[in-house]
């Protein structure tokens, strides 16, 4: 069984083994970048040096012609054209000039078109360069809202775009949160900060036990564990591509049959070099079910600013499988909640267009709908959603940003939207699964359409509030965002009761 050949997947939880030797005897000291640490100019930091080393300026990206004098043109334009602000201190629609490389028929682009003035609409991701003109960026752009998370690697910050008076929706270094293998190893390193304080942060109580198969020691550990589990009934492990996979692609469910195949294919771990590029994760074998079906959560994290650091949380939605869960089955439709998997399942059933539409509506629940279901079935008490679920999600998001702070560029003009996926087990314990830099923002049903429309509008409003000095708290108060961290405040106030002083 080759991991590079799709099979079927998902896992159970084991948190006791983190490596005693690694914990107590490894001489390396993991350094946290504390929020109160002295600040260094962003252009002198390691993330900036790393960013410059990734630039690929010779590539004709989206037919944008890089101009080394662009920021000078922007400055001159801003001096000659004053911005008209509304009563809230935000620019009027005609002067919200946004360049977005989302395809023109996508839902995010439609929302942006309603609330702003779009610029350079002939330039977008996966465009055919032969059918579109080559152009320089317009100097009147004040916000870049791109689908491509690494757009900045083809256009240099501070020279070709993101000049003073502009904001951009991706943070150089963001891949450290997105790449699954990097996340696993960062979790392991971050845990060294909490030796003796596991009540503050235990990685394998936040995320199912995970192993990076590109690391020889971790890979060998996986095959040793797999050998122990090879005759255990049902799916016990899930193997995923470490990077560049979405919508359930590259996921393999490892049950007894596939475990035997994998052990043979990789010679019980003696061919670990052939498993590079994948990770293994204990499968949550006994998830909490809704009417016999498995589900997970999508929640949004919004880093509104890196300087000052402002991190916000936003409800997403619950995604429910369309097929009944069966822990002993390798059928992906019983395990994976992704939209593509759901659509594939419906196509296999030869349902009508109307039946398919109705099924996809039922596949996504709002958090409010989920809470009502749990309360009506006496599974939780009123207030559980805020006191446990949202609080646990926000705390996980805080730690994940914090453990990556030293790798993220603290440029004052960047922000980031991320989708975080979580699952509940049968004991209603929350588990973090993965983060996505380009969360799918769709209008598949009215719930998602309403949620995502307001979400994008509020993100844009908050960014313009920061750009033009409007009352951020006033704009924030009319959104559905919740606080995770506010770097404008001092002391413990900035943490909004998510973390106690003894757990810093």
UniProtKB/TrEMBL annotation:
Keyword Protease: no
Keyword Transcription applies: no
Domain of life: Eukaryota
Stretches that traverse the bilayer: 7-25
CC annotations in GO: ciliary basal body
Gene Ontology MF annotations: ATP binding; tubulin binding; tubulin-glutamic acid ligase activity
Keywords: ATP-binding, Ligase, Membrane, Nucleotide-binding, Transmembrane, Transmembrane helix
An individual GO BP term: microtubule cytoskeleton organization
Gene3D superfamilies associated with the record: ATP-grasp fold, B domain
Protein name: Uncharacterized protein
Native organism: Blepharisma stoltei
Upper classification of the organism: Eukaryota, Sar, Alveolata, Ciliophora, Postciliodesmatophora
